[in-house]
Amino acid sequence: MNNAHTLTYSQSKNRSVFNILDSLVVSVEVTENPYNLPLDFLFEMAARKNKKRGFLFVSKILGKHIPVNPITSLLSGALLAMRYLETVHNHSIKGKKSVIEALISGSRKEEVYHSLMENPFDLPEETLFIGFAETATALGHSVFDLFNNAHYLHTTRERIVGLQSSIEFEEEHSHATEQACYGNKALLQKDGPIVLVDDEITTGKTALNIIESIHAVYPRREYIVLSLLDWRSEANKEAYAKLEEKLGIRIQTATLLAGRIKVDGEPVDTEGYYEYAQSGAAVETEIHAINLSEYENCKRIDDVAYASISSEGYVNEVPYSGMTGRFNGISSSDRLSIDDYAYRVGTGLKQTRSGGKALCLGTTEFMYLPMKIASYMGDDVYYQSTTRSPIHRIDKAGYAVTSGFDFANPDDMAITNYFYNIPYKSYRDIYLFLEREVEEVRLESLVEKIKQVGAQRLFVVTVNSNAERR
Question: Cα(255)–Cα(227) distance, rounded to whole angstroms?
């Protein structure tokens, strides 16, 4: 057996076994698959550099570690929104079959997605959606996109000068556990349902932590937890029931795929020698800077003038974008403005393309807006994001993370970030999206690593810059 290979085999219709580098064996028993989505469409497996949880379901539809067509990610969020309507509101969904077919086959995705966006669903009561940082910020936003009478916030790991988090909680299994929510208190003080959106639930404890934190200050009757994957055990589900009884609330869940997992073995301790695969002569990458403030005909939601402070003491006073939901939140009435901005920027950036395959690269929590922009940049465009998640890189068939680079996070150089799965010379153009301008020296680590992937041109695209403030 090749000990650097992830083997997958099925023992029955609803059970699959994943052998991760001959160190961990993860058995998956599917108990709920309402849309009959193939497991290999949803995820692959990798070894995670985390002793608390040494494996990772690497999503193939999220647009984080694996590059995807941006419409695929946006449409996946819409499908999860449909599942929410079916499960929580008992709403029969017209057009659900076409969404599933578009996702699986890849055909008519744009047509199906834009048809959904033109006909959002009316929620019976004002509802607040909250996406979890960093991985589910775009997923939460794309779920929210399907509704009227809704608001959206996302949690963050950003530290803001002079601003206290409205709620605080921990994501205990993560490599970076502390999270904050600087959301508009007026939104949190409403008594309508709160819908928490995450890409994956393993124990469900993160959701319970934030529900308890919210309920202590902003109590209400109903909470809903949405996820692409739900692996909670019976004991985990019982913890939900106990919290319901303790707080006098109702917690409902909805997912695209649920099941039980069993893990045997030990986490992978060391990665061993890793060498990035290259072929042919080295490429000299041209670097271009694009400041999106030049797109003056784009109506956009007001920026948020907060300054961040990194763990190293670096203060960045460039305003945050008001189109992410990180601070004041966004509402259903903002959807058209955000879409118009993304359309105008995307069609503008499309004119800069060389005509070959292109990658749009979001950065950590800044995922949705670059993804939406990428969806308007034409054919043969892929999207993914940088991440804090440390994953073992093994260049073998059947393993989810075959290549990758680490770099100093431009916003906090004491923190190592990563990007994965960009084979050498796989893209002619790469567009790196930054929410806020940073000092040039702070970008050097990331830019140097991107230059090694062999693209002909790298565009550093900045949404907000110091130039706008002068």
Answer: 5
Give the model's pLDDT for residue 42: 97
Structure tokens at 198: 């995450």
| SS (HEC) of 348-398 | HHHCCCCCCCEEEEEECCECHHHHHHHCCCCCCEEEEECECCCECCCCCCC
Q: How many helices (H) and strands (E) does the chain have?
A: 11, 22
Contact 316, 411 (CB under 8 A): yes
Which helix or strand (DSSP H or E) is residue 90 part of? Answer: none
Low-confidence spans in the chain with pLDDT less than 70: 1-13, 168-177, 296-299, 467-470
User: Would you state the pLDDT for residue 176?
Assistant: 45
For the chain, domains (ranges, CATH) are 70-259 (3.40.50.2020)
* φ/ψ of residue 222, rounded to 5: -135, 135
Place of tokens 């929104």: 81
Residue 146: closest CA among 76, 199, 87, 200: 76
User: CA–CA separation, 326 vs 130, rounded Å?
Assistant: 10
E strands in 132-284: 147-154, 167-170, 178-181, 194-201, 222-230, 250-265
